[in-house]
Amino acid sequence: MAGRFTGRVAFVTGGSRGIGKGIVELFAEEGAKVALIDMNEDALSETTSELKEKGFEVYSKVANVVEPEQVENAVKEVYETFGSVDILVNNAGVIRDNMLFKMTDSDWQTVMDVHLKGSFNSARAVQKYMVEKKYGRIINISSTSALGNRGQANYAAAKAGLQGFTKTLAFELGKYGITSNSVAPGFIETEMTRETATRIGISFETLIEASLSQIPAGRAGKPADIANAVAFFADEKSSFINGQVIYVAGGPKC
Questions:
Q1: Is there a domain that residue 253 lies in?
Q2: What is the CATH number of the domain that holds 223?
Q3: Which of 94, 96, 89, 95 is nearest to 75 (CA)?
Q4: Position 62 in a domain
Q5: Is 111 exposed, middle or buried (CB count within 10 Å of its CB: 0-12, 13-18, 19+)?
Q6: Can you give the residue range of the structural domain that contains 187?
Q7: Which class for 197: exposed (0-12), middle (13-18), buried (19 or more C-beta within 10 A)?
Q8: For residues 5, 11, 17 and 18, what is the CA-based torsion angle, rounded to 10 degrees?
Q9: Structural contact between residues 142 and 204, judged by C-beta atoms closer than 8 angstroms
């Protein structure tokens, strides 16, 4: 039976691990041809092999979203390989957490570059193909940290910026049949949150337990939870949902 994304091509940045991998897997399982770029060559190779072993059509390439030429080339290759670029998920991200007085220029700029410049580069690269086709779905991965989070001045500012970016794209691209929306995850069990536990000197289990007390749903999130929200925005039937942010955090955020 055909999936809801059969005939579509999904391009996911940072698609080799965690949330990105979960998104790629869902699109592939639902019939899409998938393209993923990442800086982690080993993880990218492993994820690509896993997908191909399952019989999915996959394009993958080591590329840095901060470098516009690398993104442009990857998107062009995807278009030439699959004949379309229908869905973009700006997922690539990094953290450089620190309190403001200890945060370095590099901590700040690296996070801004990957999240904001990277998303700009990718959206600019795909939009010309989407405009020509009069169809597209752009989904930017924000975070509940966009509402403010201790030790994350850089990350919070970048993720809040992504929400403004999302809404502006909705205004500019909506008339071409392209919607732009954002998914803002709460606490999700991924390699990134595991690295956070290591950085602050506690076990991953302890971090999860501490987070659960703040989650009304009583459990931590999984990459699949975010993938399901992304798929909702990416669905052809969601054409009248545009410029929105959905918080996927097991409870309300304000």
A1: no
A2: 3.40.50.720
A3: 89
A4: yes
A5: buried
A6: 9-248
A7: middle
A8: -60
A9: no
pLDDT one-digit tens code per residue, 118-173: 999 999 999 999 999 999 999 999 999 999 999 999 999 999 999 999 999 999 99
Average pLDDT, the chain: 95
Residues classed as catalytic: 155
Compute how many other C-beta atoms are within 10 angstroms of the C-beta atom of residue 182: 29
- Determine, yes or no, domain membership for 1: no
> Structural domain tally of the chain?
1
Beta-carbon contacts of residue 60 (< 8 Å; ≥ 6 apart): 15, 16, 35, 36, 37, 38, 44, 45, 47, 48
Q: Confirm if 223 and 21 have CB atoms less than 8 A apart.
A: yes
The answer on pLDDT for 111 being more than 70 is yes
3-state secondary structure of 162: helix
| 70 domain residue, yes or no | yes
